[in-house]
Specification:
- The radius of gyration is 19 Å and the shape is elongated.
- Helix content is 61%, strand content 0%.
- It is mainly α and 72 residues long.
- The termini are far apart.
- The chain has a domain of 49 residues.
Protein backbone atom coordinates (compact mmCIF):
# COMPACT_ATOMS: atom_id res chain seq x y z
CA UNK A 1 0.00 0.00 0.00
CA UNK A 2 2.31 2.73 -1.24
CA UNK A 3 -0.20 5.53 -0.68
CA UNK A 4 -0.69 4.75 3.01
CA UNK A 5 1.55 6.61 5.44
CA UNK A 6 4.10 4.60 7.34
CA UNK A 7 3.38 3.80 10.96
CA UNK A 8 5.57 5.95 13.18
CA UNK A 9 8.92 4.32 13.96
CA UNK A 10 8.05 4.43 17.67
CA UNK A 11 4.95 2.28 16.99
CA UNK A 12 6.65 -0.26 14.74
CA UNK A 13 6.93 -3.28 16.96
CA UNK A 14 8.85 -6.51 16.80
CA UNK A 15 9.11 -9.58 19.02
CA UNK A 16 10.31 -8.73 22.48
CA UNK A 17 10.46 -11.65 24.87
CA UNK A 18 8.85 -12.70 27.02
CA UNK A 19 5.36 -13.17 25.69
CA UNK A 20 5.29 -11.50 22.30
CA UNK A 21 4.29 -13.55 19.25
CA UNK A 22 6.84 -15.84 17.67
CA UNK A 23 8.73 -14.69 14.52
CA UNK A 24 6.46 -16.68 12.20
CA UNK A 25 3.44 -14.80 13.58
CA UNK A 26 5.24 -11.49 12.98
CA UNK A 27 5.74 -12.46 9.33
CA UNK A 28 2.00 -13.02 8.99
CA UNK A 29 1.23 -9.71 10.74
CA UNK A 30 3.65 -7.86 8.44
CA UNK A 31 1.73 -9.15 5.41
CA UNK A 32 -1.58 -7.75 6.68
CA UNK A 33 -3.11 -4.51 5.46
CA UNK A 34 -1.97 -1.54 7.60
CA UNK A 35 -5.50 -1.02 8.97
CA UNK A 36 -5.51 -4.59 10.24
CA UNK A 37 -2.01 -4.13 11.64
CA UNK A 38 -3.28 -1.17 13.66
CA UNK A 39 -6.09 -3.37 15.02
CA UNK A 40 -3.52 -6.00 16.01
CA UNK A 41 -1.39 -3.31 17.70
CA UNK A 42 -4.49 -2.17 19.60
CA UNK A 43 -5.17 -5.72 20.80
CA UNK A 44 -1.55 -6.21 21.88
CA UNK A 45 -1.52 -2.86 23.73
CA UNK A 46 -4.83 -3.64 25.45
CA UNK A 47 -3.38 -6.97 26.57
CA UNK A 48 -0.22 -5.35 27.95
CA UNK A 49 -2.31 -2.70 29.75
CA UNK A 50 -4.52 -5.38 31.33
CA UNK A 51 -1.43 -7.30 32.48
CA UNK A 52 0.12 -4.13 33.94
CA UNK A 53 -3.12 -3.28 35.79
CA UNK A 54 -3.34 -6.80 37.21
CA UNK A 55 0.28 -6.55 38.34
CA UNK A 56 -0.35 -3.20 40.07
CA UNK A 57 -3.50 -4.54 41.75
CA UNK A 58 -1.54 -7.54 43.03
CA UNK A 59 1.24 -5.32 44.38
CA UNK A 60 -1.31 -3.06 46.09
CA UNK A 61 -2.94 -6.10 47.70
CA UNK A 62 0.42 -7.30 48.99
CA UNK A 63 1.20 -3.84 50.36
CA UNK A 64 -2.18 -3.76 52.14
CA UNK A 65 -1.57 -7.18 53.68
CA UNK A 66 1.94 -6.26 54.78
CA UNK A 67 0.91 -2.91 56.23
CA UNK A 68 -1.80 -4.64 58.30
CA UNK A 69 0.46 -7.41 59.54
CA UNK A 70 1.62 -7.33 63.14
CA UNK A 71 5.36 -7.53 63.56
CA UNK A 72 6.69 -9.59 66.45
Amino acid sequence: MANQPEISRSLQWWPWPPGDPAPEIWRIINELDRRVQVQVVDAVLNTHIAIARAHVEGLESIRKIISGAKVG
